[in-house]
Amino acid sequence: MNWQVYIILCKDNSLYTGITTAVQRRFAQHLAGTGAKYFRGHSPLRLVYLEEGHDRSSASRREAEIKKLRPKDKRRLIESPENCLK
Question: Are 9 and 15 in contact (CB under 8 A)?
Answer without folding.
Answer: yes
